[in-house]
Write a structure and sequence with these properties.
By secondary structure, this protein is mainly α. The protein is built from two helices and two strands, in the order H-E-E-H. It is globular, with a radius of gyration of 13 Å. It catalyses: N-(5-phospho-beta-D-ribosyl)anthranilate = 1-(2-carboxyphenylamino)-1-deoxy-D-ribulose 5-phosphate.
Amino acid sequence: AITRDWVSPVPWLLAGGLTPGTVAAAIRASRAPGVDVSSGVESAPGVKDPQRMVAFVRAARAAWCAKTPA
């Protein structure tokens, strides 16, 4: 859980356990400037699913576009 507002002087990416279904909420909660994904868009271990990749990118973009200035 995010316990306080903070700004990092170091660029960072949110990673770990992100999927097309979780990335938008994770971006909104963390205010991450970027995300990383690997297994969250796989249909089988090591096999990237193009539809899951598109869904992930769309969800992430929608979350960033919906952000309001702090």
